[in-house]
Write a structure and sequence with these properties.
With 216 residues, this protein is of the alpha+beta class. It has one domain (3-188): Lambda Exonuclease, Chain A. Helix content is 33%, strand content 20%. It contains 6 helices and 10 strands. It has helices at residues 16-20, 26-34, 47-67, 115-131, 160-174, 185-188, and strands spanning 3-4, 9-11, 35-36, 71-74, 80-83, 88-91, 95-99, 102-108, 139-145, 150-154. A 5-stranded mixed β-sheet has the order 4-7-8-9-10, sandwiched between helices. It has a 3-stranded mixed β-sheet with strand order 2-6-5. The chain is globular and about 60 Å long. The mean pLDDT is 93. The structure holds iron/sulfur cluster.
C-alpha cells in the first residue's frame, strides 16, 4: 500500500525528462512526490552492471580532477534538500570538484547523450548554491561526462526562464490536484508504478491508426 507523504518530496532525477518533453506523464511524478512505498513493477534493467559501469566512470573522473588539483566531493557528500513553500527538491550530484572559489558540478552518464542529462545538471546548478552553504558564493559551472566526450554547461544557462519553468513544474507536481496522466506504451514500459496504483497503465504496444492522402 502506498503511504502518503506529509509534504511533497521530489528527486531531481524525476524532473529533466518532463522539462525537455521526452516524457509527458506528469502524473507518475506527482504520485511519487506524494507517496512512498508504492507497489513497483519488477525491472529487467541490469542494476548491478549499471552500478559497476557508473562507478568505474566516476572513479576515472575523480582521478582526473584530483590530478588537476581540485578537492572532490562525491555523491552522498553532495546530498541536498531545497525547501520550497510547496515541496522539497532533493538531489545528489555525482561529483562537485572545487578549487579556490570555483566549483564544477559533474554528472557521469554511461549511456547515450540526451538533452535531459544537461537539464539535470542545470537543476543542480540552480539548487546547490541555494541549499549547500559552502557553495553559496562559488563560481559554478556544470558538466555531463560521457565515456568519450563531455558537455559543458555554464551557470548562465540557469536563467529566469529556466527557473520559471522549473518552478511551475514543481508547483504542478506538488499540488493536491493530481497532475496530467498521459498513458502510452512508450512511457509506461519504463515506469515503475504498477497497474495496482495506475489502472491506466499501457502494457502492450499497439499499431497506430492510419489513413490515406492524395497530398503527397
Ligand atoms: S504507468 Fe503510464 S500512465 Fe501510469 S503513471 Fe506510469 S507512465 Fe503514467
Amino acid at each position: 500500500m502506498p503511504t502518503p507523504r506529509d509534504f511533497p518530496y521530489i528527486w531531481t532525477t524525476w524532473l529533466p525528462r518532463l522539462l525537455t518533453g521526452e516524457n509527458s506523464c506528469e502524473w507518475a511524478i506527482w504520485f511519487k512526490a506524494h507517496h512512498q512505498s508504492w507497489e513497483r513493477v519488477p525491472s529487467d534493467f541490469d542494476q548491478a552492471k549499471w552500478m559497476l559501469d557508473h562507478t568505474a566512470l566516476l572513479n576515472e573522473r575523480i582521478a582526473n580532477r584530483t590530478v588537476g588539483g581540485h578537492d572532490v566531493d562525491i555523491e552522498a557528500q553532495n546530498r541536498f534538500e531545497l525547501h520550497g513553500k510547496t515541496a522539497i527538491l532533493a538531489g545528489r550530484p555525482d561529483i562537485i570538484a572545487h578549487r579556490e572559489d570555483h566549483a564544477v558540478i559533474v554528472d557521469a552518464k554511461t549511456g547515450h547523450d540526451s538533452p535531459s542529462h544537461a537539464v539535470q545538471v542545470m537543476i543542480y546548478l540552480y539548487a546547490v548554491p541555494r541549499s549547500l552553504e559552502r557553495y553559496r558564493n562559488a563560481k559554478l559551472s556544470g558538466q555531463v561526462t560521457y565515456r568519450d566526450h563531455t558537455v559543458r554547461i555554464s551557470a548562465e544557462a540557469v536563467d529566469d526562464k529556466f527557473i520559471q519553468n522549473l518552478g511551475a513544474l514543481i508547483r504542478r507536481l506538488s499540488a493536491d490536484k493530481p497532475a496530467r496522466r498521459v498513458p502510452s506504451f512508450a512511457e509506461c514500459r519504463f515506469c515503475d508504478i504498477s497497474a495496482a496504483e495506475c489502472p491506466a497503465r499501457v502494457e502492450d504496444d499497439y499499431e497506430p491508426e492510419d489513413g490515406t492522402t492524395e497530398d503527397f
